[in-house]
Sequence to fold (403 residues):
Amino acid sequence: MFKSWKLGALILAGAALAPAYAQQADRVKIGVLTDMSGMYSDFGGEGSVVAAQMAIADFGGTVLGQPIELVFADNQNKPDLASAKAREWFDTQGVTMITDNMNSAAALAVAAVTKEKNRINFITSSGTTDLTNAQCNANTVQYAYDNYALSNVVASAVVKQGGDTWAFLTVDYAFGRSLEEAATEVILRNGGKVVANIRHPFNTQDFAPFILQAQASKAKIIGLASSGSDLTNSIKTAKDFNVGADGKQTLAGFLVFINSIHALGLDATQDMYLASGWYWDLNDDTRAFSKRFHDKLKKMPSMNQAGVYSSVMTYLSAVKAVGSVDAKKVMDKMKATPINDMFAKGGVIRPNGLMVHDMYLMQVKKPSESKYPWDYLHVRATVPGKEAFLPLEQSSCPMTKKS
Fold:
């Protein structure tokens, strides 16, 4: 059992009082809806709960004269379970804001409930661009990254360096398909070609047949449109089959978390390109936060976990500024206020709910280049948010259209 499960039980012991809390309009209750035990738990899970706790403590523990409460739950990466938990929190426990939202399908489901219940929802752990396009709503913010930015940052750089033929190895659900679609657009726009689209089920255990298909395609680049254990298992299998040993094929990740690099080791991941919206070793601010996080969990935070911290701070600051938990007032304040903290400098929440901030093109270091624990990434380029993310005028979100 995680230590945070025990803490969660103590927090939830007061659930019998939740209906009364729900009547107190100025009481703030934050819900972390994440993957506590599945394939994404290392990037969210206990670390996301700890990040939220850190933010609440750093904010002072109270807002509008009342204690800030925290609850969390395991969505098990299931949309029906995630939406049911969100509905329960809103209806019976007085939750005013949800953050994290691991897994794209689950995130979309929770976004719909958040709109219906008129609360606030931060997505720090899903990249599907549907959240800020066809399925956007006025209550949801996609905070840490999206698939367009990940794809744009990596694919454009790799194609320009000669990686002009691609085979995609894609997890077959909303996140993977969205990532592949966005990357394909970038590849074609830069003169490249996609020669194979290989789909695999979510949580695949045997990647051998899929890696063999990718090898047989003769593509220069094998794009890994997945994350979590799907990503790590595909990388392990690629190494077993000596992908790239002859210099003719290279793996390109899009959403590769530092936790995966740590688990796999630099020998297996060295030289891989990836994109990220945050890295623990970027600057003094990120290092200071990460040291405190590491002191608690003995590992460095992922981009998702750092995003949870920042999203909680952004929300609490807006609540304090407007003197209310009213969703529209809080959202309007957040959209009008640049985000400047250890996660983003000059971050802006657009009308479609997309938080735009600098993105980073990174490359995994060789073992000989790593000088200290968790020193895994070169920052090869900083890409300004307006260049990394889809231009606002190209969004299909109805909220971007002028009346």
The chain has a mean pLDDT of 91. The two ends are 52 Å apart (CA to CA). The chain has 15 helices and 17 strands. The longest strand covers residues 193-200.
